[in-house]
Amino acid sequence: MTTHPATLGRFFEDYVVGDVYQHPMGRTITETDNAWITCLTMNTNQNHFNEHLARTNPITDGKVIVNSGLTIALVLGLSVIDMSQNAVANLQFTDVKLQHPVYVGDTIYAESICTDLRRSKSRPYAGIVSMVTRGINQDGEVVVAWNRSVMVATRESGIGQNYFPEVKAPSLTEVVAQTEDARS
């Protein structure tokens, strides 16, 4: 039997310039999500929580608009599994563009393209991965996009690996064998 260690995400050497990563999860934004982030960030713009006032906003089709901080955070989070699970540092976000309103009930997906790779000159255990990431709603509308650079650990560095604790009990293969012996 093979034990597959607890490893998640990509390491620096796994990226290829020009490859597109369609991130595997989507997330539907709820009214509670929007209310929590609005309160948490102290964003007092009533278009995020006052339906009556939002009906007068010609940009939002009269609907409560999702806090853009939530939109950005969600798309970033959706991209982590592919683009920065093994990052040791975020280095840069530029050219953030909010391109289409997001409303409660929208489902957001994300995709990224790797635009540049280089080994770090000052940190031999990592490389710099640059990308363009964008969020897309259920109708295929791009809602947000940005450029981002992260410092990602190399596989040989060991960073983000071998963190699973050594179990102080019989191995699972021993447990299964004991169970099978008891049944015989």
TrEMBL record:
Quote the Gene3D superfamilies the UniProt record gives.
Hotdog Thioesterase (3.10.129.10)
Pfam families cross-referenced by the UniProt entry:
MC_hydratase
> What protein does this entry describe?
MaoC family dehydratase
GO terms of molecular function: lyase activity
Q: Which InterPro entries match?
A: HotDog_dom_sf (IPR029069), MC_hydratase (IPR048274), MCH/BMMD (IPR052342)
